[in-house]
């Protein structure tokens, strides 16, 4: 495990900007990773370097050709990182925008009267797109209810509502509210059994920083991530699409290459920073394994990250040292249960008798950064069925420490005093 390797956590933390202090607030513990992870220092340096370059891709000069090489390298790195042997990668405005574009294309190319299926656990990025474009395209939307108690949706939940006329399906890989991961491969397989030609699009935005990505094993057609949630920066999203989705009629310029999905001149620096992210996972995999193959090192890093984040969330829930865990605090309720194997680096709670916003403020006054999720258009689909108006989201990544968890527990123990 990461913390069992002498000096490794320190080496990890040294690679991230603002790991223990906010440039505006000062010293703080960062437990708001689901809202946007910390940024690799290499990403900051790469962004600055490419921001200064005036040249564009597609010109007949040395600089332009160098930029194209950077983009091609980044796409190859992404293919290794996400284990995608076919299809293509492209960037857009954000993960949300890319989900809308993929879902829109899938829906408008489906025969009228067919169905779109998705689950109630999904973030509105995919859920809103699916409902909107199903209506416009003359398709019926089928909702798969998630389990309120566990904060998950399963292949069996999809299976009971599947019919052969389902043409488009959406899947959430991990919830930014409950922190629970879904078995994408199992859900996709269940869909293929009943509707083999269905176009399947996955929201991987919350999952990307917490575990391995393995597109070849999923049997899907689209996958989107938001790089600022996986150690890069704001301002763009990354999508992978299958050859089948690539070939469908889609928004494009007249007479442009038929397989192109990008609009306008893209920021080469955004692609380059994804190479930095992949290089980081590669480095970490080399620290926790003896693998020589890059993909194997990335897989090893993913396993180590998942194991260590499980260790941290267990410490948060069960206690550490002489501090009681969240489950032993009578004034604290843990969403989706204390013992939930689907958890990915996130624990959401409510404190009896205190508005969540007040709890977040008090934690922030103690230098602990968390976030309030409200039963609004972002989180109401999860919180409202639980009878909650809000909750406190405590989200971590593998650069957080058990000592930081202990500091959080010490404050929460007496938060109502």
TrEMBL record:
Swiss-Prot/TrEMBL keywords: Aminotransferase, Pyridoxal phosphate, Transferase
Segments forming a coiled coil: none
GO MF: transaminase activity
SUPFAM superfamilies to which the protein is assigned, alphabetical: PLP-dependent transferases (SSF53383)
Span of domain Aminotransferase class V: 29-246, 324-408
Pfam assignment, any one: Aminotran_5
Protein's UniProt name: Aminotransferase class V-fold PLP-dependent enzyme
Lineage summary: Bacteria, Pseudomonadati, Pseudomonadota, Alphaproteobacteria, Rhodobacterales
């Amino acid at each position: 495990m990461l913390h069992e390797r002498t000096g490794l956590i320190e080496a990890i933390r040294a690679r991230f900007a603002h790991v223990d202090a906010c440039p505006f607030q000062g010293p703080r513990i960062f437990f708001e990773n689901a809202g946007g992870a910390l940024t690799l220092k290499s990403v900051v340096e790469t962004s600055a370097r490419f921001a200064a370059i005036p040249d564009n891709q597609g010109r007949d000069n040395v600089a332009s050709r160098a930029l194209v090489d950077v983009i091609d390298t980044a796409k190859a790195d992404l293919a290794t990182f996400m284990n995608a042997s076919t299809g293509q990668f492209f960037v857009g405005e954000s993960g949300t925008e890319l989900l809308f574009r993929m879902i829109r294309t899938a829906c408008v190319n489906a025969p009228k009267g067919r169905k779109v299926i998705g689950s109630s656990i999904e973030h509105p990025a995919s859920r809103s797109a699916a409902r909107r474009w199903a209506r416009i395209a003359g398709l019926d939307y089928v909702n798969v209810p998630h389990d309120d108690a566990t904060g998950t949706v399963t292949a069996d939940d999809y299976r009971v509502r599947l019919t052969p006329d389902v043409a488009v399906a959406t899947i959430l890989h991990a919830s930014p509210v409950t922190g629970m991961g879904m078995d994408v491969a199992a859900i996709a397989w269940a869909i293929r059994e009943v509707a083999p030609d269905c176009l399947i699009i996955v929201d991987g935005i919350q999952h990307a920083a917490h575990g391995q990505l393995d597109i070849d094993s999923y049997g899907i057609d689209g996958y989107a991530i938001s790089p600022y949630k996986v150690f890069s920066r704001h301002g763009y999203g990354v999508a992978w699409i299958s050859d089948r989705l690539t070939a469908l009629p889609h928004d494009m310029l007249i007479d442009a290459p038929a397989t192109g999905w990008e609009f306008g001149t893209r920021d080469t620096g955004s692609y380059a920073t994804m190479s930095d992210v992949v290089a980081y996972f590669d480095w970490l995999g080399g620290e926790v394994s003896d693998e020589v193959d890059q993909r194997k090192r990335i897989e090893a890093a993913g396993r180590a990250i998942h194991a260590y984040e499980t260790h941290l969330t267990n410490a948060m829930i069960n206690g550490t040292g002489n501090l009681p865990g969240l489950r032993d605090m009578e004034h604290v309720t843990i969403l989706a249960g204390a013992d939930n194997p689907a958890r990915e680096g996130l624990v959401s709670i409510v404190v009896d008798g205190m508005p969540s916003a007040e709890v977040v403020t008090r934690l922030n006054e103690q230098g602990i950064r968390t976030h309030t999720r409200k039963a609004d258009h972002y989180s109401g689909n999860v919180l409202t069925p639980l009878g909650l108006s809000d909750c406190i989201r405590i989200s971590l990544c593998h650069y957080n420490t058990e000592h930081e968890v202990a500091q959080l527990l010490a404050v929460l123990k007496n938060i109502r005093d």
